[in-house]
């Protein structure tokens, strides 16, 4: 598979990025992970880019992508999984430094890495990119910068798909629902989030597992989705389908429960 180039996963040391990198490496792909806090993935064949890689820094991204390609070969698949969660605040308390941090990493960072990698893919007439957005970008919540940044990720996914469609590069997004990563578990442990409130609006009454998001990403990177570009695929255990049922008295329980 290495003759096909490499897969680059940003935010690959933890959570959804780590699950995706491990899955793709297990399928025989040469996977390089980058992260602002780089840590190797134990018991996987993934390759850690050892230097800290900040997706929000234009100069660091341009330099880093050039060095990675010089060292490991052309990037033919990209997963933009680096991100930070939104801080929950009443609108009066939104601090603009926090707004800038979330928008800079989640939206600007996704654009910077997609542009650096995608322009080269387009020149080579071959490539696939998946951006990790969120159901938060499709709904509303008291995470003002995060929802706007993720809506922006969904938007730039369409624009980049149109930009490079004639050059053989596909660009898609996945929108995870509440996904059981260490970051989410920490939010539950701190009391900022309540597991029951995260689960009960979903049709399936549960959190999403990181591997389930990884499997959707792997499909969007593979020839199995060769006719698909510019979409945003929710992987949300039915959060979007189920969340409006509260207005009608709630979702039905399974028979016999
Ligand atoms: N877990 C969820 O419930 C959920 C739901 C919807 C969307 N998402 C999105 O999925 C993506 C991954 O989230 P996760 O839950 O796996 O979180 P996570 O914190 O486990 O992983 C995110 C990774 O990104 C890295 N990172 C942070 N800032 C960076 C930067 N500036 N440059 C490079 N790397 C950076 C972190 O070090 C970390 O390894 C994020 O974009 C997040 O918004 C998560």
TrEMBL record:
Q: One GO MF term, please?
A: oxidoreductase activity, acting on the CH-OH group of donors, NAD or NADP as acceptor
The record ties this protein, via InterPro entries, to: NAD(P)-bd_dom_sf, Sc_DH/Rdtase_CS, SDR_fam
Alphabetized PROSITE patterns for the sequence: ADH_SHORT
Family, according to the entry, reads as follows:
Belongs to the short-chain dehydrogenases/reductases (SDR) family.
Q: Which PANTHER family match?
A: SHORT-CHAIN DEHYDROGENASES/REDUCTASES FAMILY MEMBER
Name of the molecule in the record: Short-chain dehydrogenase
Which species does this protein come from? Bradyrhizobium icense
């Amino acid at each position: 598979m290495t003759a096909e180039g490499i897969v680059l996963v940003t935010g690959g040391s933890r959570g959804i990025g780590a699950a995706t990198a491990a899955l793709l490496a297990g399928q025989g792909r040469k996977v390089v992970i980058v992260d602002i806090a780089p840590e190797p993935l134990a018991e996987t064949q993934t390759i850690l880019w050892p230097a800290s890689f900040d997706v929000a820094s234009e100069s660091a991204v341009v330099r880093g992508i050039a060095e990675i390609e010089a060292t490991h070969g052309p990037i033919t698949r990209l997963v933009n999984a680096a991100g930070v969660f939104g801080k929950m605040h009443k609108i009066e308390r939104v601090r603009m430094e926090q707004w800038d941090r979330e928008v800079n990493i989640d939206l600007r960072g996704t654009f910077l890495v997609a542009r650096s990698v995608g322009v080269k893919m387009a020149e080579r007439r071959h490539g696939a990119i998946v951006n990790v957005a969120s159901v938060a970008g499709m709904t509303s919540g008291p995470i003002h910068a995060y929802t706007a940044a993720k809506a922006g990720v969904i938007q730039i996914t369409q624009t980049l798909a149109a930009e490079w469609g004639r050059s053989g590069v596909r660009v898609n997004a996945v929108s995870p629902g509440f996904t059981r990563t260490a970051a989410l578990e920490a939010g539950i442990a701190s009391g900022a989030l309540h597991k029951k409130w995260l689960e009960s609006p979903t049709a399936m009454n549960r959190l999403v597992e990181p591997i389930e998001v990884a499997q959707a990403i792997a499909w969007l990177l593979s020839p199995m989705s060769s006719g698909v570009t510019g979409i945003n695929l929710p992987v949300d255990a039915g959060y979007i389908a189920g969340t409006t049922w509260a207005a009608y008295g709630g979702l039905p329980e399974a028979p016999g429960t």
